[in-house]
TrEMBL record, chain A:
The keyword Mitochondrion applies. GO terms for biological process: isocitrate metabolic process; tricarboxylic acid cycle. It comes from Neolamprologus brichardi. Gene3D superfamilies: Isopropylmalate Dehydrogenase. This is Isocitrate dehydrogenase [NAD] subunit, mitochondrial. Its main location: mitochondrion. Heterooligomer of subunits alpha (IDH3A), beta (IDH3B), and gamma (IDH3G) in the apparent ratio of 2:1:1. The heterodimer containing one IDH3A and one IDH3B subunit and the heterodimer containing one IDH3A and one IDH3G subunit assemble into a heterotetramer (which contains two subunits of IDH3A, one of IDH3B and one of IDH3G) and further into the heterooctamer. SUPFAM superfamilies: Isocitrate/Isopropylmalate dehydrogenase-like. Keywords: Mitochondrion, Transit peptide, Tricarboxylic acid cycle. NCBIfam families: mito_nad_idh. Belongs to the isocitrate and isopropylmalate dehydrogenases family.
Amino acid sequence: MAAHSAVLSASKIMNPFWVGRLGNTAKVFGTTLIRHRNKTSFTPPPAKYGGRHTVTLIPGDGIGPELLNHVREVFRFACVPVDFEMVNVNSALETDDDMNNAITAIRRNGVALKGNIETKHTLPASVKSRNNVLRTSLDLYANVMHCQSLPGVQTRHKNIDIMIIRENTEGEYSSLEHESVSGVVESLKIITRNNSIRIADYAFKLARERGRRRVTAVHKANIMKLADGLFLQCCREVASGYPDITFDSMIVDNTTMQLVSKPQQFDVMVMPNLYGNVVSNVCAGLVGGPGLVPGANYGRDYAVFETATRNTGKSIAEKNIANPTAMLLASCLMLDHLNLNDYASLIRNAVLTTMNETRAGATMLHKVSSCHQNGYFLTTDLW
Amino acid sequence: MTTRSMRALSGTLKPLFSPRSPQRYVVAACHQTHKSTYTTIAPPARYGGRHTVTLIPGDGIGPELAKHVCELFRFCCVPVDFEVVNVDSTKTSEDDINNAIMAIRRNGVALKGNIETNHNLPPSYKSRNSLLRTTLDLYASVMHTQSLPGVRTHHRNIDIITIRENTEGEYSSLEHENVPGVVECLKIITRTKSLRIADYAFRTAREKGRRRVTAIHKANIMKLGDGLFLECCKEVASGYPEITFDSMIIDNTTMQLVSKPQQFDVMVMPNLYGNVVSNVCAGLVGGPGLVPGANYGENYAVFETGTRNTGKSIANRNTANPTAMLLASCLLLDHLKLHGYASMIRKAILSTITDSQLHTADLGGKGSTSEMVQSIMNAIQSSGPRTQRH
């Protein structure tokens, strides 16, 4: 550990010219000194060859490709021992081949970083949302979003610190719809006991690990008595096994109203798929917009990282104005997951310092400061 | 003054420009027999020129607020008599709610507080409020959210009309558990109802001189369901070329509402999204105590607070904010074409709201309900000759 940090600090003082030369040394030291954190759940062995991890990279559409290019740049600059295996998914095609390739690559590597894949409305209804297919095939059951007020970002509400845990595979997103009678569409919302217990358990375990005091379940059980009633019941059952954590519940309409007036009251929130979508977007809006918050999708065996609000950003694609913060913070989450915590905190500190700087932070982040400028500040801060 | 603040005050300025007809002429004028397909016609005042309105107090803060409404109406000599129908939410039999529904069918108009849905009762017990809405086919829930002067909020100049489909969608109460541990909940979207609500939205937008209607959906995931809703909205939009139509996905909508709510004008959406969006809007302008809501059907209209809260925790403490219920009663008076009384009460409420000393706890003040109502009555008394001295 000491040697590791010595090498890193030495390289900080040295000229960037020497970085490439010293790179190998740092990596060799780095590998042997990585701590293995004790995790309560089963962690599959990381995909490491010669000390370097391989991570699947799915550029997606819109601003995805350019942001992921920047991530790669930053990783190369910081000598992060991660190689990216790029898999392109063409959203205009109707066949599932591209998606299947991507899923196979993620199964192989275990970890992925992705941009949002566009769901074209013009294609027939049988073409399912690619992002949804990815989440359900890999059983990435928990979508975790940590919403924090960032320093240097001007928002109307301050001191927000909410963890949102959203069930990612069932609920309203089952894509099970049919038109039995012409003009009448039935859309099925599925809630199962197993998945509800699983997500509730994940939420409470995470709350305990992070030292959180309170978990709130968000539901609409006064109207959807069986479905959300089952979800609520499962949460209560799991809550009884965690007496140190307070559990309460709130109806989704009241929740959104409270979020807009007093968001500081919330700590950890757990909910089914659709409410999770709405609530996470409200929280993202409260802390400064879609360009700031990273999201993570965890399954038992796989993890996929992306921006929290899953925007394609078609209207600002390739104009060099997209905010890279969300994607860079998502890559930090990925590094944490791979146990490369030092690199993660290095990049994270650099991002937060950049946010604080007047030139990048004060102006409308996703409008004025250009992507490249941000990348530049970032790399100077890394030193 | 900006267009938006003009619109905000138009409700109060209306009485200055609209002709005021004395009560007895109301009877003679109200026998229009023609009925356009989707407009709710107010029932004529049949008995001595006085209207009869069903009043359902509900639970929580409902009864005390309903009492204040009665007090105020009496004070202003409003020609409305209330037929009170109590609905006991603890009973499982549906007699109470059936009585209420019959009373509303009889009178045509109602003012209600929220009826609590007890979680402990079995799932076969349907939400009473939902039952009322579906039986009377009150298909449109309209909530006009406006920034009120005197209420400090994070956002200013908000003026959004949310029109929410009130009878189908996720609130169909159709659920079943075929396999133990797996619950299927049906969300129904039909072409007829979607066309109907879209038509209502565009007509309302035209009547109120609005420029833009936004449909809220999640058609990228629920392609058939919300896809059908969106398609119906587009069809109806083609018949209103002067109004701009666009659509937005629900998650993006909530995010935009929280950062830039001034961009929205009229929003139309299915039931659940309507619930969430209207609550977000209510939160933006100051909370559940400020916004009134109206449920319109072809033949009936029911008025209540916009966010439908029971307010059990603040019941009987004299701390509830009466603004929402009083503004709902003004909507009721507008519906009955008693515009003079409506604007009189509305003006008084707005002048009371500007005084932050009287703000109730939900607005961060220490005032009580009765103080606010008293202040409103004083404002009315000082404004004109329509008051009754006890």
